[in-house]
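Q&A log
Question type: sequence-to-structure
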Amino acid sequence: MEDAFAVRGVPRDECIPLRWGRETELAISAVQALDPFLKDGRPVTYRSGFLPQPVVRFTGERDRNGDLLDGYLTSFVNISRVQPIQSISEYAEALDDWLYVLSRLGFHARHVSLYGQLKVWHRRQISGVTLMFRHLNLDIGDLVLLWNTQNPQRMAVDLGTGLERLAWARTLRPWDELIHDALAGAAPPRTLDALRTATLLLGHGIMPAARGAGGAARRVLAMIPSESIRLGVSVAIRSSYEFWTTVAPLTVPWPAIAASIEHEVTRR
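Response status: OK
Response body:
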């Protein structure tokens, strides 16, 4: 798994805080780093450039039983290039640069296609155009042109993909094996997904609470069956901890995370 998910040469302090608290309680995309520039009309950004951003989302597609479909996770690493731009040509250059990156990862440009509509969407202060890109028949990300609706000269590009989905397209391994490695099959995928997400949240000091970011932690912990705790979850937590810390440091050590998860689940 380490080879498939290796992130090298990226400063470990580049991520925006997981506890976001601005419009969303948690960070859901690296593009939120552009909020001051795009939404507030300020000539600054929280971060800019290439960002590997751990995020938590509850919007993944699920089957009729409520299980996440292959390619979706509650928590994952949002790999993005987010930056202000001066012209449309820079938007096209971002795609050209991305094709070069993909080629270095082993993806042939002839297997990469772009699709979508040039229809402008509007969300509060922001307008944009989104194009999707896929490798063969697998969607692997999008390329978004953004601008402030009131000041269209304030433009930015957001080219994003999921690190795990990118690794899936590159390796063609079964999804559960790719994500959970030796733990695949040791517990239901939804349990492993919950443990992985709980490790990220509690590792950032986000403890379960009635509302706010803590509400997300409580929701995730509710997905972990008590019998999993009786069997032990330390191996899964340590594995998830090692993965998350390749992207950004966690402030809480994994034994403390394991103890907190066991305490919260067993007292239900």
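Response note: Residues 88-104 form the longest helix (17 residues).
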